[in-house]
Structure formats: structure tokens, C-alpha cells
């Protein structure tokens, strides 16, 4: 009788090990599929866009840079127009980048000054 008992116990242990193996294999396959999906280029791009769109620091930097580049471009067009003189064009480009750099680095200060000037003008018109 002892042999049947030991045999039954051994069979139960084998069944438990097989179940554990099946569970581990299923979890490994799921983890592999998740890893495979996460390294697809489209998913990497989606995650990057999601991270960028949810980061207030990056949004602020992008807005500042766009404002700076636009201001630089407009100031170049206003000051240089469409000159064919190569020296003026080079100076215009240098001026454009300088203004863009200053504006993008000091966006918050420029916004504050703009709001104060606008408020001053509007208050003057009301009086």
C-alpha cells in the first residue's frame, strides 16, 4: 500500500508541475507579445507623441520656440524685405536667429510685458 500512496503523491506532483509549466508558458507568451508590440515602430512613435503631448515642460518649450522662430522670421522680413544684396541677406539671417533665440529664451517675460502694455493701452482708451 505504501507504493500506491507514493505513486499517487508522485503523480499529483507531476500534474502540479505540468500545470505550473502551462501557467508559466502562458505568462511568458503574454509578456513576449507585450514586448513585441512595444518595440514596433508605430507604437514607439505613438508613445513618444503621447509622452510629448502630456509633458507641460515640452509643450512650453515647443510654444516658446515656435514663437521665437516666427518672431525672427517676421522681423527679418520687416527689416530686410526681399533684398538681393548678399550681405544684407546674411545679416538678416543672423538677425533672424538672434531675435528668435532671445524671444524663445525670454517668452514669459515678453508675455508679461505685452500684457502690461496691452492693459495700459486699454485703460487709457477707457478713460
Keywords:
elongated; mainly alpha
Described by strand count, sense and barrel closure, the largest sheet is:
none
Give the total of beta strands.
Answer: 0
Helix coverage percent:
over 70%
> How would you name the oligomeric state of the polypeptide chains in this document?
single chain
Percentage of residues in DSSP E strands: under 5%
How confident is the prediction overall: mean pLDDT?
85
Radius of gyration from CA coordinates: 33 Å
Poorly predicted ranges: none
Count of domains = 2
Which structural class do you get from the secondary structure elements?
mainly alpha
Can you count the helices? 5
Order of helices and strands: HHHHH
Provide structural commentary.
By secondary structure, the chain is mainly α. The protein has two domains: 1-54; 56-126, no CATH class. Helices cover 91% and strands 0% of the residues. The protein contains five helices and no strands. The chain has helices at residues 2-38, 41-54, 56-80, 86-105, 107-126. Helix 3 packs antiparallel against helix 4. The longest helix is centred in the first third of the chain and has 37 residues, at 2-38. It is elongated and about 100 Å long. The protein starts with a helix and ends with a helix.
